[in-house]
Amino acid sequence: MRRISLVVVVVAVTGVAGVASYMESASGQSNGDAAPIYGVKLPKGYRDWRLISVKRLTGKLKQLRAELGNDLAIKAYREGTLPFPDGAIIAALHWDEDSSVSDNQALAAGFPGLGLESTFAGFAVNAQFMVKDSKKYAASGGWGFADFTKGKPGDEALHAKCFPCHAPAKDRDYVFTRYAPTPGTE
Amino acid sequence: MRRISLVVVVVAVTGVAGVASYMESASGQSNGDAAPIYGVKLPKGYRDWRLISVKRLTGKLKQLRAELGNDLAIKAYREGTLPFPDGAIIAALHWDEDSSVSDNQALAAGFPGLGLESTFAGFAVNAQFMVKDSKKYAASGGWGFADFTKGKPGDEALHAKCFPCHAPAKDRDYVFTRYAPTPGTE
Fold first, then answer.
1. Distance between CA B77 and CA B87 in Å, rounded?
2. Does the residue A76 lie in any domain?
3. Has residue A105 been placed in a domain?
4. Is residue A180 part of a domain?
5. Which pLDDT band, with edges at 50, 70 and 90, does A39 fall under?
6. What is the mean pLDDT of residues A101-111?
7. Does the beta carbon of A146 lie under 8 angstroms from any beta carbon of chain B?
8. Measured by CB atoms within 10 angstroms of the end CB, which terminus of chain B is less buried, N or C?
9. Is residue A56 part of a domain?
């Protein structure tokens, strides 16, 4: 079950052509602990970073996602600074979308007639990172990209897709995700 | 448009019977800045708290949600401590689910054939809080509950529903949300 989830994710990120090379690396040809092309390593402590926004992906993937930022990224978002400063890192955490019968029973009992159901972050799929270094990554808009699953980076074919896919967001320094407002206050 | 969203939310949280009293408070009868019943005020700095998990609500509400915890709550979650210690606060941030045509065009171009579309946290709806104080809130499982919209607490009818609705999660100290694993590492 876990292997199936991983393969599906990689199909989504690399396209069908990337599956063969992924299967090779999954069979033992590790890329080491730095992502190919950009050399980004898994940032330490990213689970403690602050929240930028929440997303959901539908289609052949059903995922809930959280975008977190290190201090430099959060500061830039809040102040509207573009481009992001060197040192900013944005993390995208991806989970399979899961649900619970008992949670939904509690919702139905608490709020009858509204048809409410909930889903939540289930199996941890992968995490992706954008690391700003305007000199080192000048050829890719100043960003280094990385994808990790269980501490291991994805393969080169996968990483070769990152920057072209982010090109449509050039006017936002290649970052799709916008900073979410603060419920309860705003 | 914004007023409609607020009313829909309150219908969900209070049930139909709560709408009339909500409309009264929306027309100027403010409850002040402390939530009724429990006296909880809007916690400072909760937008900076660390992520517990991500959720989605469907039915008559379409929301993306983030659950954040203060340091005591995060520590208890990570160590599996139940009941939560006094001082722990859990925040639930609720947004309307939104989408972007240009985001979806970028997904379709980057990952053809997968039918991928994304949604993200849009309009900020409300935030809800659980504050642990085992003595002060002994009658409600040790938790004080609060709901805020744009800095103003919801009414008493709304808050009267909080604890009964959380009763099914008694074996998890009345907390429904579980701590999400860490994608990229786990």
1. 14
2. yes
3. no
4. no
5. very high
6. 92
7. no
8. N
9. yes
- Domain of residue B47, CATH code: 3.50.70.20
| Inter-chain touch B184–A113, beta carbons under 8 Å | no
The string of pLDDT tens digits covering residues A144-181 is 999 999 999 999 999 999 999 999 999 999 999 999 99
Give the residue-averaged pLDDT of B88-94: 98
What range defines the domain where residue B124 resides? 2-172
Q: Residue A59 maps to which CATH number?
A: 3.50.70
Q: Chain A 100-139, CB below 8 Å of chain B: which residues?
A: 102-103, 105-106, 109-121, 123-128
A168 to B64: CB separation less than 8 angstroms, yes or no: no
Q: How many Å apart are CA B160 and CA B37, to the nearest integer?
A: 7
A41 pLDDT above the threshold of 90? yes
Q: Which amino acid is at A57?
A: L
Give Rg (Cα) of chain A.
18
CB of B18 within 8 A of CB of B36? no
Number of structural domains found in chain B? 1
pTM: 0.83
Task: Report the complex ipTM.
Answer: 0.83
In contact, B129 and B162? CB cutoff 8 Å: no
Instruction: Give the residue-averaged pLDDT of A114-125.
Output: 97
Query: In A, which residues are within 8 Å of B56 by CB distance?
Result: 56, 64, 97, 118-120
pLDDT mean over A84-100: 98
DSSP 8-state secondary structure symbol assigned to residue B170:
G
